[in-house]
């Protein structure tokens, strides 16, 4: 794992539209009830008992999820109001304004039901937002009562200004609420001596971090990374290490989290955990997940991880060992993903891997379908092979480990589920296996093995048949490059038409020919 201006970066889980409607229905009907009741409590008696029932019924995590859903609805409604306002749909603008007003009252009431520590700043913001929402509703109602175009035109700018202020107060309130909740959870982690309370707080923090990058920034800013690494340095909390490390991996997807990790010597702590054989496999796997996150080639802010280079050999050695001894596909995936990212992070990692016989270990793992059981795992393995293949010594390792046959098999990688993420992983496997073949085929022995295992016909098929490569241009380019390298080493392996169309022209011309090729002509 991608991402609140409110918060515009709020993370939304992609779900079926009917399911989303069913989930939102309760909030919508609550809203209609609130319209009728004017946000007043049903009873003023036995409030404490009612609140106790509510707080025992839902956990902090559930309450936050409810709050975030309500916030998403309000944010969406405010956007739609702006759109309707642009089209002068005053009836719709007013009805949606009434609805937003009710949602805001509901959200504030719900939050105040489960929280006991609202600050004075929070109460002031709540009052500002409620007052401005009431003003907004009254304003749009007045707009309905006039049909004079000039008056409506002059009122429109005022309505726009009020809408902007409502959105601003709303965003500030949500930011404050989330910051306060992060602070409360971190306070529980740092001050509680109870493992149960700490575990619950870490779980809630993890759920909060899953809501998107903005929440991760809030957690990091409030000292979340520091508090979690403090746990990972105390043996008495070993049972909490896997969950704590999983939460750290989520938070460290943002720059603020990485800076905090660097400040507390987080790399050294992760290296100590990975090299300590007394830790469980689950702990090692989650530490590998943190390494995979902070070395991701997609991040643009890894250059400050100077301490990583100091501990890289220890970390790489431990990760190779974890790959070799992995008891499940998930553990192997996390360890190999960390290794794959490290090979992008620094070229010295490839030399260390070569010394550790990592290629032999990875190739052996690929023959165990229980361990390397998904295209995602194969993607990590072939990424490592592709990055290592720039070293001349890799050719003999590939031959000895029957790696050419494995690369040939990877050229046939196909999604069985039709899932877009899986299909994309399959494309990456095909592309990187072709890249690895192209790089390694500079060695005559590898090229000979590739011809022996019928790599040339498969590469031609991938070039000429768009469905075989899932219409991927990156796979096509990689296959053309590999085919051209093999054609130099073994020109007899191609028919004249293949040579004339796929090898002889400039690569860009062959690429254009293949991308315009109809399936029926293949």
From TrEMBL:
It comes from the Eukaryota. Residues 70-522 form the Protein inscuteable homologue C-terminal domain. Residues 13-57 form the Protein inscuteable homologue LGN-binding domain. SMART domains: ARM. GO terms for cellular component: apical cortex. GO terms for biological process: apical protein localization; asymmetric cell division; establishment of mitotic spindle orientation; regulation of asymmetric cell division. Pfam families: Insc_C (PF19427), INSC_LBD (PF16748). One of its GO terms (molecular function) is cytoskeletal anchor activity. This is INSC protein. It comes from Rhodinocichla rosea. The gene is Insc.
């Amino acid at each position: 794992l991608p991402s609140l201006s409110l918060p515009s970066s709020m993370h939304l889980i992609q779900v079926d539209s009917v399911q989303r409607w069913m989930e939102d229905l309760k909030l919508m009907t609550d809203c209609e009830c609130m319209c009728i009741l004017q946000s007043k409590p049903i009873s003023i008696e036995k409030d404490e008992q009612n609140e106790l029932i509510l707080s025992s019924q839902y956990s902090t995590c559930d309450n936050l999820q409810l709050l975030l859903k309500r916030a998403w609805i309000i944010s969406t409604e405010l956007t739609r109001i702006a759109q309707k306002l642009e089209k002068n749909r005053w009836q719709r603008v007013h009805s949606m304004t009434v609805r937003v007003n009710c949602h805001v009252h509901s959200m504030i009431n719900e939050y105040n039901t489960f929280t006991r520590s609202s600050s004075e700043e929070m109460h002031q913001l709540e009052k500002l937002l409620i007052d401005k929402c009431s003003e907004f509703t009254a304003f749009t109602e007045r707009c309905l009562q006039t049909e004079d175009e000039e008056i409506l035109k002059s009122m429109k700018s005022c309505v726009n200004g009020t809408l902007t202020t409502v959105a601003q107060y709303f965003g500030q309130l949500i930011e404050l609420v989330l910051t306060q909740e992060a602070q409360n959870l971190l306070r529980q982690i740092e001050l509680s001596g109870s493992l149960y309370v700490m575990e619950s707080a870490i779980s809630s923090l993890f759920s909060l971090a899953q809501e998107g990058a903005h929440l991760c920034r809030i957690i990091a800013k409030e000292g979340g990374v520091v508090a979690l690494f403090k746990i990972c340095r105390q043996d008495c909390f070993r049972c909490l290490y896997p969950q704590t490390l999983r939460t750290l991996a989520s938070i460290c997807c943002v720059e603020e989290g990485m800076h905090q990790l660097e400040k507390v010597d987080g790399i050294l702590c992760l290296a100590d955990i990975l090299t300590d054989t007394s830790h469980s496999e689950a702990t090692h796997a989650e530490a590998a997940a943190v390494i995979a996150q902070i070395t991701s080639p997609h991040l643009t802010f890894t250059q400050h991880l100077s301490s990583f280079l100091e501990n890289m050999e220890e970390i790489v050695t431990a990760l190779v060992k974890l790959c070799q001894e992995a008891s499940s596909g998930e553990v192997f995936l996390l360890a190999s993903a960390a290794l794959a990212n490290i090979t992008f992070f620094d070229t010295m990692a490839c030399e260390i891997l070569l010394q550790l016989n990592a290629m032999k270990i990875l190739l052996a793992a690929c023959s165990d379908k229980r361990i390397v059981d998904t295209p995602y795992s194969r993607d990590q393995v072939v990424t490592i092979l592709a990055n290592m293949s720039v070293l001349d010594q890799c050719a003999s390792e590939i031959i000895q480990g029957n790696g050419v046959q494995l690369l040939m098999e990877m050229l046939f990688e196909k999604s069985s589920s039709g899932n877009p993420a899986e299909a994309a992983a399959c494309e990456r496997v095909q592309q990187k296996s072709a890249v690895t073949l192209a790089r390694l085929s500079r060695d005559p022995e590898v090229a000979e093995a590739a011809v022996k295992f019928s790599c040339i016909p498969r590469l031609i098929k991938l070039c000429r048949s768009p469905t075989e490569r899932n219409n991927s241009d990156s796979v096509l380019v990689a296959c053309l490059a590999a085919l051209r390298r093999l054609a130099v080493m073994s020109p007899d392996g191609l028919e004249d038409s293949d040579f004339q169309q796929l090898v002889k022209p400039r690569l860009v011309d062959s690429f254009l020919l293949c991308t315009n090729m109809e399936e029926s002509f293949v």
